[in-house]
Amino acid sequence: MILAATPIGNTGDASARLIDLLGTADIVAAEDTRRLHRLVQSLGVNVTGRVISYHEHNEATKTAELLEQVRAGKTLVMVTDAGMPSVSDPGFRLVEGAVAAGLTVTAVPGPSAVLTALALSGLPTDRFCFEGFLPRKAGERASRLADLAAERRTMVFFEAPHRLEPMLRALRERFGSERRIAVCRELTKTYEEVIRGTVGDLLLWAESNEVRGEIAVVLGGAPEQAPGTPEDHVAAVNALMAQGIRLKEAVAAVAEDVRVSKRELYSAVLAAR
Would you give the end-to-end CA distance of the chain in angstroms? Predict the structure, then answer.
């Protein structure tokens, strides 16, 4: 079974391996068969294998059938509308089932909206996380953002254009107006646009423009907090000790977490007794 990444906008990004597999695979499982048809037409590929619709609404019923075909020796290629299958797209159930059945799973790497947006954002790329789409309901969205309040890694989200403005407003409420952010629109397409600035800046931009197209939002992580003095963290050590952890281990754990000297924190704990 092969997961194959498809172009996220520019069909010129299709790899030679993708083109070959689409033309030779026994089965092509596609999130949207109409999108697949347009893709292969633009690539000049003649699909000789069986095309099967495989999406979030039929994964539960189609997965077993597809895995049985792989078990029988058929070459199965899984594609989604854009990018890598299973990344905020159908495919996870298929991979999960194949792994459980001991079947070989591999991938044809290629375009990724997540990595493209991250690379273009101008924000730190050494550590990042992908959060997909935030919940649509305001309360659930606020709860998810509260969970990310202390996240120091750069965060990548997807969002629909008509929900971008309320999303940015929610980001401002949780993270403040000055957090750095980039909105990446229509990546690799003719009207690609990357707008960089603060959350406050981009909220004003979204309020005054009709936003269209597929969107990735890249948000800077929480700024590192100053470590403070050892005395500031005595209570944290005492709290660990109250749970039965020995003084030395409690000091080491807190010191590493808050980035203070173990020796100085140990002395502060003893002095506070």
Answer: 63
